[in-house]
Amino acid sequence: MELTTHPGLEQLAADEVLALAPKGVLRAEVRPDGLRGWVSVWGDWPAIEQAARRLRAVHHLFRPLDRFVLDAAEPLAQVEARLAALAIPALEPEGVSFGVRCERTGSHPFTSEDVGRVAGAGVRSRTLRAVNLRHPDVALRVDVREQICRVSLALTAEPLSHRHQRPYLPGVSMKASLAWAMLHLARPQGAPGAVLDPLCGGGTILLEAGALWPAARLLGSDLDGERVAGTSANLVANGLLPRATLRQGDALDLTALWGDQAPVDTVVTNPPFGKQVGKGLDLRRFYRELLQSLLPVLAEGGRIALLAERRAAFTHALEQVPALRLRHVRVVEAGGLHPAIFLLERA
Ligand SMILES: C[S@@+](CC[C@H](N)C(=O)[O-])C[C@H]1O[C@@H](n2cnc3c(N)ncnc32)[C@H](O)[C@@H]1O
After folding, report:
1. 194 within 8 A of 101, measured Cβ to Cβ
2. Which superfamily does CATH assign the domain made up of 176-346 to?
3. Distance from the CA of 271 to the center of ligand 1, in angstroms?
4. CB neighbours of 138 closer than 8 A, spacing ≥ 6?
5. Ligand 1 site, CB within 6 A
6. 64-91 pLDDT tens trace
7. Distance, CA 201 to ligand 1 centroid (Å)?
8. For the chain, which residues make up each domain, given as ranges?
9. pLDDT at 308 over 70
10. Which band of pLDDT confidence, cut at 50, 70 and 90, is reported for residue 273?
11. Which CATH number is 2-154 given?
């Protein structure tokens, strides 16, 4: 089976599948053929599939169908011929539609659209099924990386990371899989007393923490009242509001906002990111003031997992707060950017 995740989280996804199906998995390989964000898993298919549907680091599951080295002279004709020769049982029933999505990396004399087009033509020459690119019954994926071409069948229609009810969905929100990775890195053994997100946005981190740790208190705040109300609606939709306390307020003054709940053992959060960072915001200063604001509410030995887009600025800010020790840094890809999860511990 093949799994996809955020580039940077492949090893966490591989470790997760090994932990969920220790007897079923023979081997897991991260970035097969150099494909960023992919993990290949070998072993007992039913055991892996059952475990895979419970994975929290993963977006989609795939069944590998074909893999070949691209022909240097006629690569597109070869892709079409390979797809035409492929028996795909899921396409046998009358009336099913299919779609092909292609991702390509490397230097090629063709585009990913070209590959999708010839792959689709290859499938149709064999089955004559209707093409539906938006909502296909059978979703095929063709990945070209340098000279390697891989063909897979999607086993998931919706990403596994779409696991929470979210009546409130602000424009930029984190995927549950990335929230899980931050929570897992902060508390690999689980069971914190409380999780605080002082920049809670639409509440993804709190939703994931609530699902993961049934006994943890959920504390969330945001400067923007609409976000606080939205997080509340999302927590209600997932039955988590009774365990949560939500407040509107400034993350740079947490003693005033959360002093009554201190000390908190776990903080997981992501400061403004990408387009959310307005021209006036000095992120280096914001990071430093945020860390200084967190210190008085954080328990001794307490942990912070924070996603920082400007890694150098964050490292600089951290140097100004010696009471926080850096435990781990992991660069991930999210929304076309390359932030890092920084794991900190209060000395
Ligand atoms: C990247 S978003 C958080 C997204 C959230 N983790 C989610 O997945 O939905 C950053 C949030 O920080 C909030 N924010 C920005 N400056 C703040 C401040 N000084 N105090 C509290 N919240 C702030 C913004 O309103 C925004 O909701």
Report:
1. no
2. Vaccinia Virus protein VP39 (3.40.50.150)
3. 6
4. 88, 90, 91, 96, 97, 98, 99, 129, 153
5. 173-174, 199-205, 222-224, 227, 250-252, 270, 272-273, 276
6. 999 999 999 999 999 999 999 999 999 9
7. 5
8. 2-154, 176-346
9. yes
10. confident
11. 3.30.2130.30
